[in-house]
Structure formats: C-alpha cells, structure tokens
Amino acid sequence: MIDGNKIDARAIVGFYPCNSDDQDDIEIYEEDGTTLKTKFCTLRQQLDKDQDNFLALSDFVAPKSAGKKDYMGFFSCSAGHGQEEMCEKLKEDNDDYQIMMVKTLTDRLAEAFAEHLHQEVRTNLWGYAPNERLSVQECINVKYQGIRPAPGYPT
User: Fold this and answer.
1) CATH code assigned at 57
2) Domain enclosing residue 33, as ranges
3) Which residue of 52, 117, 124, 134 has the fewest CB atoms within a 10 Å radius of its CB?
C-alpha cells in the first residue's frame, strides 16, 4: 500500500476565535472575532453517578461574559484516500481477506496520523507547548496540556 503509493493521507487544520455562550454552547466567530460563523451545541455529561459537576465541552472555553477572546482548534484527517480503489480491485479478485486488511490498516494509519497531527498542533502549528517532548505512552495517557475531543467517524 505505502511502497506502491496506493493510499494517501490528508488533513486540514483551522484555528478560530470563539466563546461559550455562558451556557452549554460554543460560538465560533469569523476572523474579526465578533461575526458569528457557527454554533456548536454541546451536551453535559450524562453519567448516572453521584457527582455535582457534569462537564460540557463549553466549560473549557472562555465565556462571553468574561470579555476574553478564546480560540478553538479543529482538525480532520484521513489515511484512506485510495482505499476504495484498492478494495474494488480486490473485490474483483474475490479477496475478502485483503479487503479487510486494507480497511484495518487504513483505519490504524488514520488513528496514528491523528495522534501525530495533534502533536504538531500543540508543538508547532498552534505552538502553545513548543518544548513538549512526550513519549507515545505519555500521549496515550493524556499527559499533554489541553483536551482533544474526538466526535467520531463518518460512515
């Protein structure tokens, strides 16, 4: 797959001014910092536990009432461009095992690419932790500054 350039990894990264709306939602603004671009409606944790503080993603963003500008970074990545073509060829050959292997490998490569991109955002692109040197295990154990919510995978 890799030696034959059969798949391609791609990503996009963006940083936007934002504030929470003093409730559970996050307002994302145009570059001017005031024109509303979109709003993310976030939910509070829905745990059935004996606790007082149920968090929402908006709790990690400065509220509008504080008068402070905050920022939110986004990225999306894939390591599966070319996967469909590979699988179509394998389907013609009735090679279900190789189809499964291609899909599994591109999924794992996408996960690794997301981890790498997250590190690039922290240390270089956004650069809020330029001197951070974490091991793979420390990254897995979330020993970095900030949070990285992952909303899921498209189907």
Assistant:
1) 3.10.196.10
2) 8-140
3) 52
- Token code pair at residue 109: 């490569």
pLDDT digits (tens, 9 = 90+) for 81-110: 999 999 999 999 999 999 999 999 999 999
- Summarised one tens digit per residue, pLDDT across range 32-43 is 989 999 999 998
The total number of structural domains in the chain stands at 1
Query: Helix 83-92 and helix 96-120: axis angle, to 10°?
Result: 170
Query: Taking a C-beta distance cutoff of 8 angstroms, is the pair 44, 33 a contact?
Result: no
Q: What is the 8-class DSSP label of residue 95?
A: -
Which pLDDT band holds residue 153 (cuts at 50, 70, 90)?
Answer: low
Task: Mention every residue, 6+ apart, whose C-beta is less than 8 A from residue 12.
Answer: 75, 76, 77
79 three-state secondary structure: strand
Please indicate, yes or no, if residue 50 is contained in any of the structural domains: yes
Are the C-beta atoms of residues 88 and 118 closer than 8 Å to each other?
A: no
